[in-house]
Amino acid sequence: MSKFVVGLTGGIGSGKTTVANLFAEQGIDLVDADIVAREVVEIGSEGLNKLSEHFGTRILKLDSSLNRSALREIIFNNPTHRDWVNKLLHPLIRIEMLKQLDSAVSAYTILIAPLLFENDLDRLVNRTLMVDISTQEQVKRTSTRDSVSQEQVHRIIESQAPRAKKLQRADDVIDNHGEISALKSKVIALHNNYIKLSNNA
C-alpha cells in the first residue's frame, strides 16, 4: 500500500474518538475498524449470511439484523464458537478496511483501531499513535459515559493489551489528561509531522 497510514489506538475511554475528530477537522480521512466491523455484518452481507447459516435465527433480531448480545452470549463461554466467528469476520473486516484505506484521498489516513496491536493491525500502517490516560481515568470516564459498573470497565481493560506494552510499541503518544485546547495543539503538531512523513514516504 503506497498511501501513508497512521494507526490510532488507545484503551477504552481514552479519547480516541475525540482525537480522531480533531484530525478530521484538519481534512484527514478516517477509517474506523469498529464501524467496518459493523458494516461486514449488515443485513444482506456475506458475514451475516454465514453467521445465520452457522448459528441459525437465534442470532437475528425480528428485522433480520444481527442480535449482537445473542451472538456475544453464544461465543463468550465457548472458545470453539469464538474462534469460528473470528476466522470468519477478521478477514472480511481486513479486506473492507484495506478497501476504505485505498479509496481515501487525504494526504495521509487515520485507521482507528482499539485492538491495533492485539489484532496485528499495526502491520497495515506506517506509524502508530496511542491516546493514553491512566487506568483510574479510563474507569471514571467510561463508567460515566456508558453508565456501566466500574467492575465491567475493569474487565474490558483487562481483556486489552497492558497499557505499558502498548506505550512501548507506539511510535507516538498523546497524553490526554489535560484540556481539549491542549489536545488540539498536540494533534496539529502531529498532523504537521505526518504531512512531512507522507511526503517523504
TrEMBL record:
Domain of life where this protein originates: Bacteria
First-level EC class: transferase
Signal peptide (residue range): none
Molecular function terms from GO: dephospho-CoA kinase activity
Predominant location: cytoplasm
Family recorded in the similarity comment: Belongs to the CoaE family.
Primary gene name: coaE
Keywords, in A-Z order: ATP-binding, Coenzyme A biosynthesis, Cytoplasm, Kinase, Nucleotide-binding, Transferase
EC number: 2.7.1.24
This protein's pathway: Cofactor biosynthesis; coenzyme A biosynthesis; CoA from (R)-pantothenate: step 5/5
Alphabetical list of Gene3D superfamilies matching this protein: P-loop containing nucleotide triphosphate hydrolases
Reactions it catalyzes: 3'-dephospho-CoA + ATP = ADP + CoA + H(+)
Name by which UniProt lists this protein: Dephospho-CoA kinase
Pfam families: CoaE
Subcellular location(s) of the protein: Cytoplasm
Binding site for ATP: G13, S14, G15, K16, T17, T18
Keyword check for Ribonucleoprotein: no
Job description of the protein: Catalyzes the phosphorylation of the 3'-hydroxyl group of dephosphocoenzyme A to form coenzyme A.
Xref: CDD domains: DPCK (cd02022)
Lineage: Bacteria, Pseudomonadati, Pseudomonadota, Gammaproteobacteria, Alteromonadales
